[in-house]
Amino acid sequence: MSTNKILLNKIIKGSIFEIILNNPSKRNPLSLELILELQHLFDSIKRNKKIKVILLKSTGPSFCSGHDLKEVKSFSSSNKKLSNLFKKCSKMMMTIRELPQPVIACVDGIAAAAGCQLVASCDIAIATKTSFFQTPGVNIGLFCSTPMVAISRKVLPKDMMYMLLTGEKISAKLAKDYKLINLVTEKKHFHKKILAISNKLIKKSFESIKIGKIAFYNQLEMPLEKAYDYTSMVMTKNMQTKDAKEGVEAFIKKRAPNWTV
C-alpha cells in the first residue's frame, strides 16, 4: 500500500485500484492538497492498462465532507485563489468521467457538498444503509453551485432542488430512490458487495468498457439525432476490435470469450 497522510492507495488482485481518503479527524475534506493528489493519481491510472476498476473509499465516519471551509475562508480575500480551488476541483471531477476505467464510489458515512459531487461523478455508487447525502451550502450562505453540476446529471430536477434548497441530509435509501446511488447494503455486507461488483467488471472486456464509458458520457450531451449518429459510428469501430470479434464468435459457438489483456 502506498501512503501519505491524507490519501492511501493499493492494488487488489492486480487489476483493482483502491483509493482511500484518509483524513478522518477532519471528515475527509476536499482540500486543495487532496484535490491535486487525486488529480495526479487519476492521471497516472488513466495510462495504466493493467487497472480495470477503481474503488474510491474513505476512513472514519465521513466519506467526504466537501471543501475544507477553513481553507475556503483563508482564500476568500483572493478571487484568484478561490477560482483556482474550484477550477482544480472541477477538473478532477471531470477526469473521473474521462477515465477509461469504471470508478465505484464506496460510501460509508456522510457525503456532503463537494463530497456528494464526488459520489455523483463516479460511474457506480454503493453505500451502507447508515450513510447520508447532503448539499448543505444553503445553510451557510454558500450555495452548492459546483456540486449541483454533477449531482443534477444523476437526479431529477425536483429532487435536486429539494436537496439544494433545504440543505437537509437524505438517507441512503432516499439517495437510491433519487438515482444518486445504485445500491444500499448493510455495513456487514459492504466490502463483500463491493468485491462482487468489482469481480463482475474485471471479467468483462476492458476494451469494450473503455469504448462504452467514453461514448456514454459523450452522447448524453448531444441532441437525439446526433447521439444516434455518433453511437452508430462508435459501434461500427467497436465491431472492428479484437474483443468484439472474439465475443461474437464465442457467443455463436457457445463458449466463454478470451478477452485481450
Structural write-up:
The protein is of the alpha/beta class and 261 residues long. It has 2 domains: 2-202, 2-enoyl-CoA Hydratase, Chain A, domain 1, CATH 3.90.226.10; 206-252, Orthogonal Bundle (Lyase 2-enoyl-coa Hydratase, Chain  A, domain 2). The chain is built from 11 helices and 11 strands. It has helices at 32-46, 69-75, 79-98, 114-121, 145-151, 157-166, 172-177, 190-202, 206-220, 224-238, 242-252; strands spanning 2-3, 7-12, 16-21, 53-58, 62-64, 103-107, 110-112, 124-128, 132-134, 170-171, 183-185. A 7-stranded mixed beta sheet has the order 1-2-3-4-6-8-11, with helices on both faces. The chain has a 4-stranded mixed beta sheet with strand order 5-7-9-10. Strand 3, helix 1 (32-46) and strand 4 (53-58) form a beta-alpha-beta unit. Helix 9 (206-220) packs antiparallel against helix 10. The chain is globular, with a radius of gyration of 19 Å. It starts with a strand and ends in a 9-residue tail after the last helix.
